[in-house]
Amino acid sequence: MDNRTHVREVSRVLAVAAHPDDLDFLAGGTIAGWTRAGLDVAICIVTNGDAGQLGQTPRNQVAALRQAEARAAARELGVGDVTFLGYSDSRVEVTLALRRDIARQIRRVRPDLVLTWAPERTRDFIRSNHPDHRAVGEATLCAIYPDAANRYIHPELHDDEGWHAWRASQAWLMGAAEPTAYVDITDTVDVKVAALRAHRSQTGHLDDLAERIRETAAKAALGAGLPAGRLAEVFQITPTA
């Protein structure tokens, strides 16, 4: 697997996730590398993570807390543009409304590359198969094409809001059963860990978080054919234009 030829003509990225900490776990090192290289990265999070289990935190405070954590994590990665769509955690479905909302973000950001979840179910780790993950992946792919690329789909985006049609050239999928590309994150893994630490409600109890992240990234790197000692994140790349 090799991603090195795929980002030469990329200057803007939109990352679309289901939950506040998705991107940091699956692509934090990659996003940190992109911002270090000067790429403009925007993040769109579909839910507020309001179904998260936060111990004694009152339920009506969970969404605000997780949003604040996600913004802090994004700052660690070098991202200042973070949008929450406000859908309920664990109740996401592939609807026209969700497709429109993601298409709006694509037209607003005008990314060359869209990063999101793979929509297919895998068998290796059940938590990767959260229904929100798969629904967001499918809705985002629909939003990339045809929704964002055709002004006559969701015409209110163009006619009422002024968001012109836009076609991203690449889709990068997280959690794919058969990844086709890797990113070497050896130099940004500490930034990834710092971003994950910002999600205190989710990772504060994990004293061995850094070790877990490095172990997972080392396995990914070996699977990608990188030398021992390197760390990686893996994706499936789909041309869209």
Shape: globular
Task: Output the strand order for the largest sheet.
Answer: 3-2-1-4-5-7-6
Could you name the ranges where pLDDT drops below 50 across 5 or more consecutive residues? 1-5
CATH architecture: 3-Layer(aba) Sandwich
Report how far apart the termini are: 21 Å
Quantity of strands, as a count: 7
The arrangement of helices and strands along the chain is EHEHEHEHHEEHHHE
CATH H-tier superfamily: LmbE-like
Mean pLDDT: 92
Q: What share of residues are in beta strands?
A: 15-25%
Helix/strand/pairing class, anyone? alpha/beta
> Which percent range fits the helix content?
40-55%
Q: Evaluate the radius of gyration.
A: 17 Å
If you consult CATH, what is the topology?
Rossmann fold
CATH classification, class level: Alpha Beta
Number of helices: 8
How many strands, what sense, and barrel or not for the largest sheet?
A: 7 strands, mixed
The domain count comes to 1
Protein name: N-acetylglucosaminyl deacetylase, LmbE family
Pfam families: PIG-L
InterPro entries: GlcNAc_PI_deacetylase-related, LmbE-like_dom_sf
Keywords: Zinc
